[in-house]
Automatic annotation (TrEMBL):
Segments passing through the bilayer: 270-287, 294-314, 320-341, 348-368, 380-400, 412-434, 459-477
UniProt protein name: Transmembrane 7 superfamily member 3
Classification via Pfam families: Ig_TM7SF3_N, TM7S3_TM198
Keyword Lyase: no
Stretches assigned to coiled coil: none
UniProt domain TM7S3/TM198-like: residue ranges: 273-477
Subcellular location(s) of the protein: Membrane
InterPro entries found in the cross-reference section: TM7S3/TM198-like_dom, TM7SF3
Any single GO CC term annotated in Swiss-Prot or TrEMBL for this entry: plasma membrane
UniProt lineage: Eukaryota, Metazoa, Chordata, Craniata, Vertebrata
Keyword Ribosomal protein: no
Keywords: Membrane, Transmembrane, Transmembrane helix
Length: 544
């Protein structure tokens, strides 16, 4: 660590430094080799913004402010020393890490053709986030050149001798799940600062050419640390340079409610915990308790579409929408049960159940890297493909509805448990359905890349989901193999029983008294139970 006023650096070496608001730290690199033409100096902090500047008194055109900031020093002939100044905007001490990276004359210069931001040469990546997506943008690079020469023109043409030949590879790196510590960030951001380290540790998401806009969207993962960086590549010289890595947790550390440490609202926890209890029962007993199974599937089906409708049509708060969604789900579940009781249509009920399973299956397919294929950026292509995959499930199982119902109750019921776990511990498996909901509710979510981490927590919870689903399906198949596929139509059964009792005078149930008389007799029986028992014998005196 360094907390003195002078920070001596070596090229390519990280140094941790404590910054404060009152005393700027002077960072110095000496003995720079003559073949180095550019030095990119960068500093990173977790949540408190720091100022990095060429001068002791920062100005707009010579400094940058943020949690991940860097400056490009174009070296003059014979120059062997570089100096920068660091300080925090926070009154308390801020832990940060700094590094300087050298580049040669054939290496491209990140941000060398900046026309949008304040710095003349800006190697920074600018990041904005919402609860739905993350947006990164950066300035185009320029070709490298020797010390003392004029920089190549950024607009002199589009041929192979201009900056238009450059390519940009965008990389993503996930921090360990459920770890928000500063030291973890400092150690991992080093893996995303230099070209070779980025290629070895990061996930390459896409490649942009100079014809493409230099901005990219990703799905937001609140509470999960993510680092982004861009490598600019010159195909003529086969040389590369890295921009300044930028990180985000897609949440605020300072907020008292819904901060990075809280995974979900109380209303969300109550809703999905109750759903998980019902889902766990359905997972093992759904087919045996047919009406409960129908209620569970009807609840999910009606609740999902009602939440989409009320979110797009109104501006109600989240808690209000969730309460109304629960009410709509209950109505939907009761309606499906009532429909079965009155009409007894197994096909209609199984179509709804098959759709619920189909939607989950289709969401899982697009949760894989397949969902990030460029062809599915088109909403028409995506929704036609998604609907076809979802409808495939009820169509394939149209001849064996009992198998379909047992599979649906086992898989969907166990996934409800996964959603409940996600309210308390971060897991990427929740985004199987959450990304679908985001795509339905947000018109521009199709442009976002939906890659998520898959780490230890996710493997454990995936194992739990798999074991619950397999156990539930196996138990139900063994228990129901000798039973009738579905219970008889309840309304017809009740109607036949009523006719039988009214016509068969030998049936004891034919002589059951009317309801009013039965209630009266019951009340009399209860009254007699509470009356004090009379003693035996005569209570009047004997006449002599």
């Amino acid at each position: 660590f360094c907390n003195a006023g002078l920070l001596e650096l070596s090229l390519g070496k990280f140094r941790n430094v404590l910054l404060n608001q009152t005393n700027p730290v002077e960072a110095v690199i000496r003995n720079i080799a003559s073949n180095v033409t550019v030095v990119i100096f960068q500093v990173h902090a977790q949540q408190s913004e720091v100022v990095i500047s060429f001068d002791k008194n920062p100005s707009v055109n010579s400094s940058g402010t943020g949690v991940d900031k860097g400056l490009v020093s174009i070296l003059r002939p014979q120059q062997s020393v570089c100096t920068w100044y660091l300080q925090s905007l926070d009154a308390s001490q801020v832990l940060s890490t700094a590094i300087s990276i050298p580049y040669m004359e054939k290496d491209p210069i990140p941000g060398g053709c900046n026309l949008e931001f304040d710095l003349e040469v800006d190697p920074n990546i600018y990041l904005d986030y919402t609860l739905v997506d993350i947006h990164i943008k950066f300035a185009p690079a320029n070709l490298g050149y020797t010390r003392g020469a004029n920089p190549p023109s950024c607009d002199s043409g589009t041929g192979q001798n201009s900056r238009w030949r450059l390519h940009y590879d965008v990389y993503q790196y996930f921090l360990p799940e459920n770890d928000l510590s500063e030291m973890v960030l400092m150690s991992h951001i080093r893996k995303m600062s230099e070209v070779q380290s980025i290629k070895a540790n990061g996930i390459k998401m896409l490649t942009l050419t100079t014809d493409d806009k230099t901005n990219v969207y990703f799905s937001s993962l609140p509470g999960q640390g993510v680092i982004y960086n861009v490598i600019v590549w010159d195909p003529l010289w086969n040389t590369s340079a890295a921009y300044i890595p930028v990180h985000t947790y897609a949440c605020s550390f300072a907020d008292l409610v819904d901060n990075c440490s809280s995974f979900s609202k109380l209303s969300t926890k109550v809703f999905f915990t109750a759903l998980a209890v019902l889902g766990l029962f359905t997972c093992f007993c759904g087919h045996r308790f047919w009406k409960t199974d129908l209620f569970f599937m009807g609840f999910i089906f009606a609740g999902f579409f009602f939440f989409v409708f009320i979110t797009r049509a109104t501006g109600l708060g989240y808690d209000v929408r969730l309460i109304l969604t629960a009410a709509a789900g209950i109505i939907g579940g009761l309606f499906l049960v009532a429909s079965w009781w009155r009409f007894g249509s197994v096909l209609l009920c199984m179509f709804i159940i098959g759709l619920v399973l189909g939607f989950l299956f289709s969401s899982t397919v697009f949760f894989t890297p397949l969902g990030d294929y460029r062809v599915f950026r088109d909403d028409v292509v995506f929704w036609v493909t998604f609907s076809s995959v979802a409808l495939m499930i009820p169509v394939l199982f149209v001849g064996c509805p009992r198998i379909l119902n047992i599979l649906a109750s086992g898989i969907v019921g166990s996934y409800a448990v996964v959603l409940a776990i996600a309210c308390y511990v971060y897991t990427s498996l929740a985004y199987i359905t959450l990304d679908l909901l985001r795509r339905v509710l947000n018109d521009y979510f199709s442009r976002a890349y939906t890659n998520v981490p898959f780490q230890t927590n996710d493997f454990i919870i995936l194992s739990v989901w798999t074991m619950l689903a397999l156990s539930g399906v196996t138990v139900q198949l063994r228990r129901e193999r000798c039973e009738v596929p579905f219970p008889p139509h309840p309304y017809l059964t009740w109607k036949r029983e009523k006719e039988r009792r009214s016509t068969n005078v030998l049936d004891p149930s034919h002589h059951i008294p009317p309801l009013r008389e039965r209630i009266h007799n019951k009340l009399l029986h209860i009254k007699e139970f509470f009356q004090k028992e009379q003693p035996a014998g005569e209570r009047t005196p004997l006449l002599l």
